[in-house]
Amino acid sequence: MSIDFHTQKLLAAFLLRLGDDRLVLGHRLSEWCGHAPVLEEDIALTNIALDEIGQASAFLHLAGEVEGGGRSADDLAYFREATQFTNVQLVEQPNRDFASTMARQFLFDAHSYFLLEILQKSAHERLAGIAAKGFKEARYHLRHSKEWMLRLGDGTAESHRRLQSALDDLWPFTRELFAFDETERALTDLGIIPELENIEKKWNELVLSVLAAATLAVPANSGHVASGSRTGRHSEYLGHMLAEMQILARSFPGVKW
Amino acid sequence: MPRPTKEEFFTILTGVHDPEIPAVNVVEMGMVRNVEFSGGAVHVEITPTYSGCPAMKIIEDDIIAALRSAGYNNTFVTTVYSPAWTTEWLNDSAKEKLKAYGIAPPRKISDEVILLLPTIQETVPCPFCESSETEVRSDFGSTACKSLHYCNHCRQPFEHLKEI
Predict the structure, then answer these.
(1) ipTM
(2) In 3D, which of A201, A36, A43, A233 has the Cα closest to residue A115?
(3) Final residue of a domain: which of B55, B85, B115?
(4) How close, in Å, is residue A71 to chain B by CA atoms?
(5) How many independent structural domains does chain B possess?
(6) β-sheet bridge partners, residue B77
């Protein structure tokens, strides 16, 4: 489809959000490589990391194209500063323990599942294509993280305590997942992406039912709620993470192997 | 010299094997989506099995090498994501090859609802002894496209090409 300049900017911003979420989460998951509690989970987490980074690569590549400024997926991943990243703060939170990683993953997977399910109906063919592919993978991610919520929540006293604590810490970051602003609204009004408002309701239904089955308490909606990441405001963790992620590319700009 | 046909190119590419599963080639795996010959160059479209498949670069290099061996020195390979790769594209021959190699082939995709609690899964038959007394060890195996299983009958672990 051919779109005007203003719409191009909006679409590029939207694609960047989708890509940044998955790039940062993929990187976080890759940090588990060689360190997971059991071999099967080491493999699971790194496979999921690959899926996320693969999706990120596709979204960033398309964002760069739509933006029209000649930036490749690599340029966007390795040569932007933290304040230029537009991922939600949830995904940049540190891995901490396995329970915390699974809680973060489950909360994101539930969002990703419903978001990609609806984006595969986008009028923008290439966005729809990437979303359709990502949706198939999101099914397996969600199945995996949901199972761990049940196993850890309804597990031992220690696994339950760790997971409840992780959930309480991460809950304030979930509001951002549904903080759709002018970018999403304009793209919906222009008919490029479908209405996204329903995702929150589906997410709530699924998450609350899994928490109940896992004997976990729904955290109270009190205290500071994270916001602003879609326009570049991040927690202090992102800068440190990017320093590690970007150092090789920045030390040897233009290197190819 | 007669203009090469699409079929001829696809035939050349059946010589490119999946780097992780050498029993099958990239054409029967459904990864080669289109081949066009124009402007003196071969344009190949490939699609990844999973978004982050790390073998795609090797596959791209192997495709270029295979075409060079066949006399085509100008090849451009692009990655496309649509239509999304699905195990439904594997024919019976490819599935037989997987099974002979020790990988349980993908089954027909059914409308399994993954959001049900608890998760319902039909067991994957063992590629070695055909028993259905198998269990899933992990939905994620040595490559993005495979899951890890164990057969309680012949007591061997095996991998399965996940339905997607």
Answers:
(1) 0.89
(2) A201
(3) B85
(4) 18
(5) 2
(6) B44
